[in-house]
Amino acid sequence: MVTAREPSTPSLGRYRRKRDFTVTPEPAPAKPVTREPAPLSFVVQKHWASRLHYDFRLELDGVLLSWAVPKGPSYDPKEKRMAVHVEDHPVEYSAFEGTIPRKQYGAGTVIVWDRGTWEPVGDPRKAMKAGKLVFQLHGEKLAGLWELVRISKPEDSQDQWMLFKKRDEWAQPLAEYDVIKALPDSVTRNPLGLVEEREPKVVRPVHGDVSAMELSAAVSAPLPAKLEPQRATTASSLPTTGDWIVESKLDGYRMLARVDKGRVRLFTSGGHDWTKKLATLATEVAKLPLSSGWLDGEIVVLRDGLPDFGALQTAIDGTANDEIVYFLFDLPYCDGSDLTNVPLSARRARLAQLLEKDSDRIRFSQDFDAPIVQMFEAAAGLGLEGLMLKRRDARYESGRTQTWLKAKCRLRQELVVCGFTARGGKDGEVGSLLLGYYVGKKLHDAGSVGTGWNARTGRDLWQRLLPLERDASPFDVAVSKPSRWSKRAAGAERWVHPELVAEIEFAEWTDEGVVRQASFKGLRADKSAHRVVRETGEALKPAPPSQVKVTHPERVVDPTSGVSKLELVRYYESVAEWMLPHLVDRPIAMVRAPTGITGETFFQKHAEKTGMPGLKAHDRNLWMNHPPLLTVDTADALLSAAQMNVVEFHTWNSTSQHIDTPDRVIFDLDPGEGVKWKQVQEAALLTRALLEELDLQAWLKTSGGKGLHVVVPLAPRLDYKSVKSFSQAFVRHLAKTIPDRFSSTSGAANRIGKIYVDYLRNGKAQTTAAAFSARARPGMGVSMPVSWEQLSDLKSGAQWTVQTAREYLSFHTRDPWEAYWWAKQSLASAIKRLR
Prior knowledge:
single chain, CATH 2.40.50.140
């Protein structure tokens, strides 16, 4: 195996000469240091400079051999991608992400698109001289055998090569899988794990009964006194290949049972002995036909057939805990045999034999012979925590592994209770818990939680926390200010010694490391506070959009850009995560183009004979004397509509929950004939300035067409008539104050050289193109949310298109509208001031 080694003469002179390290954040080459032999690394960096390209880098002799690949890699062996050999880069560059300033070499933004290790086939140094380098990649997105071939001549100004995929089990036609479009984001921000582990190329073995299964790996061994359990890694996506056993993720406490000559002891995952606490359960385990062994499972309490975490806590703390059920899922030791190297499927078959006799309290954790996607949707629909996915051939390994995955419908983990506030500012009942987690030996602020308990639990928490109270904060740094996601409850913060651990369910982590939309599930008596760290991973979406079948994928939607129906559907698939918050629960109007945007197009607002699976049709009573309104609430619904030739999505200014009281005002800045783009930008600033004089914050997005949208979020209190009246008064004030810039009257003749600010969109049932919606216009522009700081850099209202928007988003992970969702403003004062 070729390993990394330090060069005798580093070839980084060109790299140094091209850069001013006092200005650029790129790493300056460090002094060579002696390193232990290690696998060679590779990195692919996505670089938006003067144009988008991919930098392909292979570590060799202490530097990164580098090629600029304009179109990026492809798994299709027929796709020969141009690769220009450029200067070597320092090894430290493999971790670089950031923005190279203007006027610097390579100015633009860089993200790490893929990373991993590589193995050359043959001598790589001789291969580089010969101009033919064959190698194996082991990355998070790229795998298999690849080749770089020099195609330039010695006299050519550029050292040009071709990068292409060799034919092997990883090769796929571009029409079936485009890795560039399927996985556009940074792997440092969204780690995927090795693709070879996510999607192993294996053939599912055929298993018979347990006696015929592969048990040859079992060895005779004494029963261990202790056993650290195998732990699962949080899945970043549902595996689409490989052989997985699928179980429900039970909402309880992990519990291991040690049986030694009929004597049973029960241990938590942290090694605490709970035998006395669960004495009746230990008695039930002792009845199993097992002389000695270790059993692995989860204890739960069922309510209406589903695990109830709160009920489990009550049962554990009570003297009578006969309601606790022990679901067993693994058998690492059995009657003198160590089964840890036996495939999981065989261990579970042996476990099932032990549990043949029915028992209300000791049960086998069933697996399900159904597609993972369907199982995940069912789990989410039932309100379960998620799924456990285990490789069928996995051995039992103590500690966290990639062969066991947990696919969460919603994020959940333990956090340390570091403080509290009183409900309503009065002693006796907890109003919120202040949370943290350990980074090394220091506590990091994780925000707060103020929901998930009743008054009785609030009083109980108060009694538990009072004896632990201390004067100073236990955090390593000052507590973060309330963020858009986590708002501290009212009342003075009181601090406690960090001893208690709470189970918290939440939507996501913010960039500041704070939990968003948190809910308290209970205290964890089985967890030690000092072991609580932040888990990685994200909650998965119940319906992976890639499952949609696209009919007539080749149909051209826009002849000017060549965008096909498949491209449009894949665009909506790729932006579903960003777009859905702007769609969910809002009645919609859809622009459909069955033959493309140059053919006949029409609006659809209601359910019709042409069904779109996944779209929600609301009760007719929601809008009396009208057909049922439709909403797009899921990724499935979004893609179902796109598959049915929907190009544009327009939304109401109110949700179905508050159908008569809008929660936003929209001002559509529509330039008339002769208006230059700079005037549109100035108009947006003037509109914002007037709104700020009225103490109203506004957010900005491109329209996807000629203009801009200025959006003002509201608390849904006033009716449509009042809100529309305000918007009309606002626009008339603009036009009256600056008549040479603005017009409040529609019609082309009334806005020549001016900008018409459309307030009519604020009436009931009126709609505006949703954020991220494509537009049925030549070029297929996209309505893109932007920050006000970006306004001066915008070139048009259609700056981003179906073909470029997703690439732009891969470089911009923060939502410029992040504070929008919490800005519930009142119009009362503004209305008075405009009169």
